[in-house]
Amino acid sequence: MTIVLSLDRGAKVPPSTLQNRLRIAREWRGLEQADLSRELGVGRSTVSNYERGVTIPGKLVINAWAVACDVDVEWLRTGQTEDPRPGPGEGLSAGSKSPAGETSLYHP
């Protein structure tokens, strides 16, 4: 079953795909493909292939991607989350300070 959300202006938003969430997470963190590839220990073309859906990343890669991009792994895997923290683009902006003084994309 495919779910399509309607926006106020009548536009349709397609369901999120893993490849889109991978790209969104990387961009949210402010990383270029080459930067993320170094963090993951893979080639830049591998990151590109994951983001284009040419190759499907395994569980370990998805987990490492989530850590590197500081996003909820469940959101990255499925587009759903039980994590109360805001996802990319919601809540605190990148680099804001948490109450503990830590720099983070978001805080609980």
TrEMBL record:
PROSITE patterns attached to this UniProt entry: HTH_CROC1
Pfam families: HTH_3 (PF01381)
UniProt domain HTH cro/C1-type: residue ranges: 22-76
Highest taxon listed in the record's lineage: Bacteria
Gene Ontology terms, MF aspect: DNA binding
Coiled-coil residue windows: none
Renumbered residue ranges of the record's region Disordered: 78-108
Cited SUPFAM superfamilies: lambda repressor-like DNA-binding domains
Protein name: Helix-turn-helix transcriptional regulator
